From TrEMBL:
Name under which the protein is recorded: PET117 polypeptide
Taxonomic classification: Eukaryota, Metazoa, Ecdysozoa, Arthropoda, Hexapoda
Keyword Transmembrane: yes
Annotated localization: Mitochondrion
Main location group: mitochondrion
Taxonomy, superkingdom: Eukaryota
Record carries keyword Chaperone: no
Length: 74
């Protein structure tokens, strides 16, 4: 009877250990994916800001040209 109980305890311990290892592995994988998605979002955000800054710079250049033109005509 003692041998059977020890086998059950050993089996349960192994099962719980495998379950914990599987959970940790899956959690780490999910965390890595979330972190990668964050990097992708940051890159996209930087690209949008770059495009907006270029657009604003072009507008400022056009306004500067217009102002110089108006001041030159006066």
């Amino acid at each position: 009877m003692s041998s059977q109980t020890s086998k059950i305890v050993l089996g349960l311990s192994c099962s719980i250990t495998v379950g914990i290892i599987t959970y940790v592995h899956m959690k780490q994988q999910a965390d890595r994916e979330k972190m990668h998605e964050g990097v992708i979002r940051d890159t996209e955000r930087q690209q949008r800001r770059k495009i907006e800054n270029i657009y604003l710079l072009q507008q400022q250049n056009e306004l500067t040209k217009q102002l110089k033109k108006e001041l030159g005509n006066s």
